[in-house]
Amino acid sequence: MAVAAPPRSAARTHRAVPRRPVAAAPAAVLALIAAGALGVTALWWKDTASVAGAAGWLTNAGRLTGLLAGYAAPVLILLMARLPPLEREVGADRLARWHAFGGRWMVSMVTVHVLTITWGYALTNDRGWSPRAWTSCSTTPR
Question: Which helix (H) or strand (E) holds 23?
Answer without folding.
Answer: none
